[in-house]
Design goal:
This protein has eight helices and no strands. Helix 4 packs across helix 5. By secondary structure, the chain is mainly alpha-helical.
Length: 154
Amino acid sequence: ILLVAISLLYFILAAQFESIIQPLIILSEIVVDIFFVLFGLWIFGESLNIMSMIGLVVMCGIIINDSILKVDTINRLRKNGIPLLKAVFVAGHSRLKPIIMTSLTTILAIAPFLNRVDMVRFAVPVISFYYYRYERRDDCQFVLYTVDLLRDLP
């Protein structure tokens, strides 16, 4: 399944970048990711289990996404006539904030699942608070309830 997923990702990236080499450069980072995950697990004395494999997949997704953003920016700068080395530096500088933002959204989205007990301790009071807060109101205000809930969540 992993080989099929990687080959499909390669074909999609090859079609997007209209290149054979650039998707290989992006996908070569998966090898580095796997090495550092295994090294980190060994350093901390942890075993390779389902949760660490899920973390590996999430980390690979974050790094592949960041690489796609940077390579796309480098390609656009190269089309404007900027030399390769300068395009790499300019793309790294100009895309740093969006890369950090996309990485943080993924990391923060999975952070509550790192410890299920804390997630339950967090979610039950919040949901019950909003349920009792809006239970006496009309059903048409359920939209307001949803917007208010999403606004107040960290």
